[in-house]
Amino acid sequence: MLKKVFKSKDEKVDFDLNSIYLGHYNVTYRGISTPRAPFDYVIYQMIIHEIKPDLIIEIGTLNGGSAYYMSDLLELSGNGIIHTIDISNNHSPILNNNKRIEFYYKGWQGYDLKKASGFKKILVVDDGSHQFQETYDALIKFSPLVGVDSYYIVEDGIVDALNTHHNLNGGPLKAIRKFLKENNNFRVERKWCDFFGNNATFNVNGFLKRIK
């Protein structure tokens, strides 16, 4: 058995879910606030490389950092655009002329699915309100756009572990459980959920892969 030996206080390894959660609020991407767990940044780039989507639908723009990150990944592959959806125009002006990002401001309820017509590989990311009913309703609306072997990613199921899901009427995990009980076209992809350890992701059980 390895014995831990610390020469000084500065060499001590000491972190947990709460420290990661607090730290994720300070994350930026190219200078834009982009709250996301470090595990998930790595997983996203692997999924996008694997799927090579020609359309990513993102529910929840906020400052636009996440869309910026994903647009750069698409730029590296030379293909694909992002439809990022919110209820207000608060994103960084740096993104206004980004050729791979289109902004929609009527909320996901106001997004016309015809906008997704003609795209062959669609990836959906829900980083919206995380309220149970809204998360579930968005799953019902957008999941048919996801083709076999692509993903519908439901973010922030970690709220259960943080014990804040009660403020969200049950939150994302409740919506995922209900959706999967009614829909056998998707499964939780453990490859991603457990990549760094059992659900070592803020998207607990949230990487939903279409299998048929």
Give a description of the structure:
By secondary structure, the chain is of the alpha/beta class. The chain has a single domain (37-210), classed as 3-Layer(aba) Sandwich (Rossmann fold). Helix content is 29%, strand content 16%. It has six helices and nine strands; from the N terminus they run H-E-E-H-E-H-E-E-E-H-E-H-E-H-E. Strands 5-4-3-6-7-9-8 form a seven-stranded mixed β-sheet, with helices on both faces. Helix 4 crosses helix 5 (171-182). The longest helix is centred in the first third of the chain and has 14 residues, at 38-51. The chain is globular and about 60 Å long. The N and C termini lie far apart (46 Å). The mean pLDDT is 95.
Number of domains: 1
Question: Tell me about the biggest sheet?
Answer: 7 strands, mixed
Question: What is the assigned CATH homologous superfamily?
Answer: Vaccinia Virus protein VP39
Structural class: alpha/beta
Bin the strand percentage.
Answer: 15-25%
Distance between the termini: 46 Å
Report helical residue fraction: 25-40%
Please provide the count of β strands: 9
| Total of helices | 6
What is the global morphology?
globular
Kindly report the spatial arrangement of strands forming the biggest sheet: 5-4-3-6-7-9-8
